[in-house]
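FAQ: What does the model actually see?

It sees only this:
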Amino acid sequence: MGESLTDSTRVWRSSSPEETEALGARLAASRPAGADALITIHLAGDLGAGKTTLARGFLHASGIPGAIRSPTYTLLETYETARGPVVHLDLYRLQDPSELEPLGLRDLALPGHVWLVEWPQRGEGWLPAPDLLLTLSVGSGAQAGTHGISASALTPAGRSWLGKVA
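And it is asked to produce this:
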């Protein structure tokens, strides 16, 4: 399912929601232990590209049971996991990045926290730079029925993490 292009980029093709969730689970399983900084993963892509599905796989593999939905209306949901807190943000409904201020994100930008951010472009200027940028796309033509997932590691922490994804 995955192809390594360089030490800082990987590309996967998913043919089902289960495969996309499995990739999220592999990301969670390779999460660096004892991170000494906040780690952010930006999930970019059109509606229906699989951002929430990937986040769901990450959260389930992190030990969060039950239904996991994108926090579209509340903008964020925080989950306590055995390996540290995970903050899931969905900024789709954000009209202006300044709307992030009352959410108290500064209090959640702590070492050992992981942020999964859907629609990160809507919080531009207010969010930390991503360690990993995952761009999800819906296939067309010969690739119809599949989803492309491209990962770019933008920091040393991101490169280390991406290098461990099986």
